[in-house]
Design goal:
Blueprint lengths: L3 E6 L1 H15 L2 H6 L11 H4 L8 H4 L3 H14 L4 E5 L3 H13 L4 E3 L4 H9 L5 E6 L6 H16 L8 E5 L4 H9 L2 E4 L13 H10 L3 H15 L7 H10 L7 E6 L7 H13 L7 E6 L12 E7 L10 E6 L1 H19 L9 H14 L9 E3 L2 E6 L9 H9 L7 E7 L11 H9 L3 E5 L7 H7 L4 E8 L14 H18 L4 E6 L2 H25 L1
Parallel strand pairs: 2-3, 2-4, 4-5, 5-6, 7-8, 7-9, 9-10, 13-14, 13-15, 15-16
Antiparallel strand pairs: 1-10, 11-12, 12-16
Amino acid sequence: MSNVEVLPVGAAADAIERHLPELVQDNVASRLFAQDATLWGKDAESESAKRLAWVGLAESSRPLVAEIEDLRKSLQDKGVSRVVLCGMGGSSLAPEVICATAGVPITVLDSSQPDMVRASVQEQLDQTVVVVSSKSGGTVETDSQRRAFVDAFEKAGIDPTERIVVVTDPGSPLDEQSRKDGYRVFNADPDVGGRYSALTAFGLVPSGLAGADISTLLDEAASATEELGADDDSNPGLRLGAAIGGTQPLRDKLVFVDAGTEAVGFGDWVEQLIAESTGKQGKGLLPVVAGQASVDTDEQTDDELVVHLTSGDPGTLSGDAVAVSGTLGATFLLWEVATAVAGRLLGINPFDQPDVESAKEAARSMLESGTGAADDPAFTDGSIEVRASGDFLGSASTAADAIAALLREVPKDGYLAIMAYLDRIADRSLADVRQLFVRSLHRPVTFGWGPRFLHSTGQYHKGGPEFGVYLQITTEPREDLSVPGRDFTFGDFVAAQAAGDAKVLADKGRPVLRVHLTDTEQGMSDLTQAIRTATSSHAGSQGDS
């Protein structure tokens, strides 16, 4: 019995039939597991040469298990059982899935939104251990979160070195400083990129400390290694890679549907893996995390491939689709292989992220200049300030008018990205508006929490095909929070991140509508009503046409 199953229909089945023989003939699988850096062309060799160690993590990460378990027992003996993870992108998404699937609690702080940071810092501090995860230590969000916890522990009379655990690459500035200061440090494999790091210390340390069975996770990955590294036509990694990256014409929007998978939140992890790996050079695959919502698949468009995530029999598949099932550890490895194979078929390097840094640079510039989101709005509608990049607003004078104007900018092969720089825990109900847009547009709609998505779909937004339009939502924090040792607040920082991201998109000619809520509670209500009005109006106009 295979540890992972890939069942295709329609265009996905055709793509496998078309590309699998060549992938097998070229020994792509065995070369991948031999860490052959030439698989993606000469231009990708230098990067891929230092990014392929993930293929062997099922074994190379094994020594971490006992170390993590020993630390967990030591912390439990001291009454420390609440685990907070400070990290962004690949450093946070895998542990979130691992812990949710295992049913063990973990607080993932992957935000610079001050209300979310404050809530994480203030809760049960006397029972809290903080895992600070960053490859280089230079990630400003993570450094700011670390500073907040150090300050909180010191004010509570708790030694931070006994409550903060650092995960980083060996020899990084964070590694050297943390060891010097007396913190417990776990080193991750430096030859693994962040989004492929689920089975490195970045995924295992916080998950293991929280109580997840990381030994079994590695066993699951190890059990799938042989079939994923085999050069034959039953290889599920080759089959899935061909299905998502080889359709003709390319179904470049991948709609992920929860069809009974036991892997809780898996779509959010695979979203980053695929979007950041493939969205570059004007190419890419756009993951659309639809959850259990059927509205995304009611009317499948000809550029969509539906991916059913399941843990058993997917039932009868129709249209252009592929069903994927397997244990969590094996499925992590399966999707990493498939993404690397899809990168080869698309003709891109699946291991770099050339456009992520542009938003970081723009945010730094905004922060240094003090502008943040303070440019004058085009108009204000109650609790909502409206700004736009581009001239699509026309005569719009209400938030609903502005949103309707943005929807008219979505091209027939395009998508809408909703980017919400809010507290993704306290304000999580906002994500429900995605379905309103799907019903109105009949086009793919993504929803990302900022700044989390900057390390995920943010690469695709800027480096992928130029057919996206963007709705950015920001808010005044309920209460701002200073960053200890810095001359800016978390509120300043998240505003600069949002403004910087919007500027980079605008500079690339992308339509961006920015709505800022001057009062969070009232603004959420007003915005939701504006969205209902705009989507209803747009759907009506589409029907009339």
